[in-house]
Every structure is written in C-alpha cells, then in structure tokens.
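quick one before i forget lol
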Amino acid sequence: MRYLHSFVSLPFFFLLIITSIQVKPQTVVAEFGNHEITLNEFERAYAKNVGSWEEAENDSITDYKNFLDLYVKFKMKLRDAEVRAYDRDQSLIDELAQYQKQVGVSYIIEKQINEPGIEQLYNRKKEEFRVSHIMFRPDSSGDEAARQKALEVLDSIKNGASFEEMAERHSDDRYSAVNGGDIYFVSAGILPYEFEDAMYTLQPGEVYAEPVKTRFGYHLIKVTERQPATYKIKASHILISFANSEGKVDSAAALQKADTVLAKLKAGTPFEDLVQKYSDDTGTKPKLGDLGYFERRMMVREFDEAAFKLKVGEISGIVKSSFGYHIIKLTDKMEFPPLSEIRDNLKDTFNKQRYQYEYDQLLAKFKKKYNFTINDEAVDYLAQHSDSLRFGMVHPQLSEISDRELFTYADKSVSIGAFLDMANKNTKITGKAIDNNDEINNAINLVCDDFILEEEAMNLPKTDKEFAQLMNDYRDGIYIFKIQEDEVWNKVKVDSADVYNYWEKNKDKYAYNERISFSEIFAKKDTIINQYYAWLQNGADFDSLAMLYTERPAMRTVKGHYQLQDVNASDFSQEANKITKVGTYTEPVSFAGGYSIFRLDDRQPPRLKTFEEAKAEVSGEYQEMFSKKLEDDYINRLYKRYEPEVYYDELENAFKKGKGD
C-alpha cells in the first residue's frame, strides 16, 4: 500500500509544482472590445515605425501617446476587417498570393544567396594567400585527358617531386610557370570560385588533394603563404627612371642616383624634399610623391610586395620595377571598413564570381524538395512533333499536343501548352530548337525555376518568422486600404454645386498675392551682357535680343518671358520685382550663374480669385474635408462599438527594459 500511495501522490505533487509557478501577466496599455494591446506589442510596433529600438528609446512620452492613439485606431480597423470576413474575400486572397510570390522570390534570393554569399566574401577578404598553381588546359584530346595528366603530375608531387619544378615543366599557364606556378597574393573574389574554395582549405605548404576544375581547365593548387590582409595602404614614392636626361636608357646611372637619394634619406633629408628634387614621376611629384590609397595587386608586383611589407612611416630600400627604381614610404594603412560601407562593391564582385553557382545549387535543392520530375516520354513526343520549329514560333500542332503532361513538381502538373506559352516569352530560350531534346530539357529547367521559387515562397511563412511577419504586415495594409476604399473613397462624391457653395462661403481664402510677369536676357559672361545692354540703350528690341541670344536653357523660344507669378515665387520674380515701372529694364546684374537684364512686363495687385480660377483648389480642399468627415464618422462608429480604453500611465515603462526582455 505504501508504494501505491506514493504512486498515486505523484500527479498531485506535479500539480502543486505547476500551480505554484507564477506566470507574470503582461502590462496592458489599451483595450477595445475583448482585445488587448500589451506593452510588448506597443514597443515592437513603435520601434518598427521609427526605425529601431534605439531610436524609440530616445523619444518622449508625448510621442508614445500619440502613436498609441493611432495604433488603437489601426487595431480596431483590423478587427473590423476580420468581422467583414476580408480573409475570405477571393480578390484579396489572390492579391496576397501574387504579392507573396513576387516578394517571396526576391526575399529567398536575398536571404539565402546574396546575404550569406556577401558576408562570406567579406570575411574571406580579411585573409590573403600567396598561391601557386599548375594548370592543364584541355586540348584536342579532350577534358578527361587533361584531368588524367593533372592526376599524374599530382601523384609525382605526392611522391616527393617539387611542385615548382612540375609547374615549370607542365603548366599551361606560361606566365606563372616561369615562377614555379606562383600567381602572387590573392584574396576572395579574384579567382574562379572553385579555385577559391579549395584555396581557403589549405595552410602554407599544403597542396590540394585533387585537381580542381574551372572554366580554364584543371588546376593543382599550393598555398605558400596565408596571412591577415590589409584593406588598403597609402604610400608615396620617389621614382628614378631608367632613362637619362637625353632619353637614353642608362640603368647603371639610374641605380647610382637612387643610391644617392637613399643615402640622403638615411642622413636625415626629408622624404618630401627629395621627391621635389629627384623624382621622375611627374604625376605624383606635385603631390610630394603621394600615390593615394591602393589595394593589393593594383601596383606592379615588385612595388606591391615591398610596399605591403612596410610599417607606417617606414621607408623601403631601392625597389626595381619595369618603370625604374623606387624608394617607397608607407604613410597609412586602412583597416577593413564595416560590411555596410562596402556591401555594394562586394555584391558586384559576388554577382560576377559566384551568384550563378549559388543560384543553381539552391534551385537544385528546391527541385529535390518539391520532387521536380521531367516526363522524358513527353519530351520525346514534343521533339518529334516540332520538326524545324524554334521557341518563339507558333506551334502548328499546339491543339493536338497541348494537354500532355511535360513535368511535375509539388504534386502539380505542367502541360506542354503551358510550358510553350512561358518558354516563348523567355528571351533566354527564344530561337532555340524545339525538335532537340537537350534544348527542350534546358528550356524546361529555365522555365521551372520560376515555378519552384514561387512554390518555396508560398511555403516560406511556415519556416521563416521574419517573412511571415512581412506578409502579415502586407495583409494588414491591404485590409486597411480596402476599409478606406469602402468607408471613405468610394463614398466621396463631389457635386459641382456643393463645391460652388463651399467657395461662396470661403472665397476670402482663395486670393492672389501681388503678381508680376517679366522677361530676362541672360549671358554667362559680363562682356557679352554689357554688349546686349548697349544695344538696348541704342534702341534694340528686348524681345528680339532675348529670342536670339539669351543663354537660359529653353527660354529663347518664349523670348525669355516668365508668365504671371507671385512676386515671391522664385529668386527670378524677387529680382524682377525690384523694378518699379512696367516696361522698363534693369542694368546688367550678377545673377544665377551669370549676368541678367530683367524687364518688368506686367504688375497686378492682390485680388480674390474667381470661382473658375479657384475651382481646382476648392474641389481638392472640399474633397479632403469630405473624406476627413467620412473617416471621422467611421472612427466614431468603431469607438462606439469597441469602447476602447487607453492606459497612458503604463507608457512610462515603455522601452525601459532591454530589447530581448
């Protein structure tokens, strides 16, 4: 009985534990009907509205209160949308689905390809490798023969042969072969992605375990150095050219001169003074030898290697390049900037080097996920019934072959007819032969990409909370738009008689200030405008001169004339308004990037607008007033229905805790 008693007591024991756990209630900042708005929900909505949690923390209680009032109205409208069963409105359902497909595809590509790819590129660029390779380019004997040759050489290296000697003897990259295969320092984004991926797995002295295939052929890869990369450096130099003052090459004299300069530097002569006296680089000499900031591999190799080894303030020895002898001073090193600052440049690099590969990999994964299957018999059938036809052409037997299933995915079937309709619109496919099985399969794979990505987009809210919230926000936006349409915009009916009556009661609001019309002759040079002024003084016609000579764009066709406008409408009208007598003109004045002569053509005193003159303005204002009344009436109905209560005092606690609390 003791054991039985203990066993029976266990559930009661756990019940005691469970009931003793106190679930802390959430602070409520507003209620409407049977619904609550918690402080946490308010904080999330407010932070999103202002851009960030950090921005929200710095705002005032008044800001919080104003937003809460708006948010309560927003939530009541969404509740009303629920009551109206908008979630079962087929037109809204279709609109949401179409949006989800469009935005979802972009979201997938950004989140699953671009963002991780660019972040990897950024992180990889923080290292640099000195790498060597032996390249085997396929020839008439074919791709497999090149691979076999690479394997044979790799076996020799694994058995003790020198990588550098093998490169000199066998590499088809003759530029690097003479240097034992050395292609100097590289970082991410420079070499083909297949080469790069292999390179980043190696430590100095290691050779990659197998040949790596790129578009250039097969490569054996060896890393000789691996170290942190410097983003950019800034350097100055003194160049001693091989050519003497007579233009003849005299490298011995140049070296002797460089030795003299270096000796003077060691003796304490300022670097900048020696640049002015000795440097043959006419481009940098006026800047005291400054070359500005540059990245690895932007300079010739000898210069690059010497410069990147220096510490800031350090001066190199004599460095020989194809340009002559250099003495280099490192003046600054630039640290890697945050990813956000160089993201656009990295994205360009990623798109060129790796995007297509990552895209193809992702699509292959999705095709497997959604069981994408091509009906080979249907492909044969389509090819056999498409003699000499190409994509983009009208298929003469379409009605006969249209309904046959061509491929399936996610338990959905795509017919030959549907496929041809889409393929014929795809510029990547147009012109390819339809009577060729390989071309049909390639076209199917291109067309199905859209189907597969859209299928993933439709399933994305189940697995991605951020995208699910994005879709919820868009759904709410559609519902609010629909309510505004039903309750306000569709009910606004502006009657011309009502507009006129409104104007009659408020005509004092619609008036012109003092207005002028004027003309201008403009020239960029004072000598030219003074010539025009002299001609006017001698009786020349202002309009004729403006039509022939004014340099203001597009003003010759209107003889430099500006229509009637408020005297304070622009800098032009303010300048012309200085003229007191209609028909007279100014002396040349410096104005707006040149010189002008203004003439006052007309001046009209302030007056009320006629109904016709004010009609557009009155109609807009009346419509806005009517819309506001309809909106207020609707909100008042919601207030009566839901009787909201707002607890402003609770906002004192807003954004007092951490973002994750």
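fyi The chain has 24 helices and 20 strands.
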